[in-house]
Amino acid sequence: ADNSAFLGHIYLDLFPRQGKYGHACVNPIQNGSENSDGSRVYPVAAILANFPKPTSTTPALLTHDDVITLLHEMGHLLHHICIQTKWAHFGLDSVQHDFIECPSQLFENWGWEPSVLQKFAAHYKTGERIPKELVAQLVAAKNEGAGLFNLRQVFFGMFDMAIHNTEDANVDVEATYRALREQITRFSGGSGPGCGAATFGHMMGGYDAGYYGYLWAKSFSADMYATRFTKDGITNAQTGMDYRREILCPGGSIDASVGLERFLGRAPSSAAFLESIGVANSQ
Length: 283
Description:
Blueprint (H helix, E strand, L loop, with lengths): L8 E5 L11 E6 L2 E2 L5 E2 L2 E5 L15 H19 L19 H7 L5 H7 L11 H9 L5 H19 L8 H13 L27 H20 L4 H12 L7 H9 L6 H6 L7
Parallel strand pairs: 1-5
Antiparallel strand pairs: 2-5, 3-4
Helix pairs in contact: 1-2, 2-7, 5-6, 8-9
C-alpha cells in the first residue's frame, strides 16, 4: 500500500466448532463495485479455518503447516479486497478458475523465508525467536515428499478430467479412480471395498473439471515469485505495488494472462516451478 485508503472488510473465523466446515477457505460475502456517484461499495470476505484453539494455559499455537495455510488463505483474501473494478460482476468469482489459486499459492512463499519466520516465530513462554538453525532445517526439508505430492496433484487433475470428459456420462468413477491412481502415483488402490473417489471433496466443492488449476497456477506463482520478488527483494514496495496493480486489482475484468505478462515483462515459464520442487530443468 502507498497510502491509508480504506479497502474493505474482513472477518476471521479461525477456530473449529461443532458443525463448522472442516477445511480452510475464503468466502467472498460482497464484491466491491462503484456507485453511480463514483463512491465505492467496499468488498467483504471471511477466512474460515480450523486452527488449534487457545486453552487456559496456552495461546493458539500454530504449526508451520498452519502458517502456510493462513498465508494461502490471506492470498485469496487480499485478492478479493484489492479488486478495483467498476462492476461487482468482475470480483473474485469471475477470475479464471485456473488462475484463482495463483495469488494464494504465491503468498505461501513468505512462509519459507528465513527472514520472515524470524520476525514472528517465537517461543510462547520465553519469547525467544526461532533459532536460525531450526529455520535452516525447516527450509531444507521443504521438498520432502514433493515428488509424491505433485504426482498426487497430477492424478487428481487427470481423474477430474477423465470423469467429466464424457458425452454420455457412462463412466465407472471408482474404476477410473483406481486405475489412474495406480498408473500415475504407482500406489495400488487395493482390492477391498471402498470408494476413494468419494473422499475427493473438491469434486463437489466447485473445482469439478478444474482441479488441474492448482498445479497450473502453482507454476505461475513460482515464476512470479522467482522473477520479481526474489530478484527485487521480498519486501520491495514497488514490486508489491506492481503485483497489486497488474494481478490483484483487475479481478476478472481482464484475462489473467494479460496481467501475468505485464507483471513478468514476458510470457510465463515453468522453469521456476520445476526448480522450486527440486526438479532440474533439462532444457
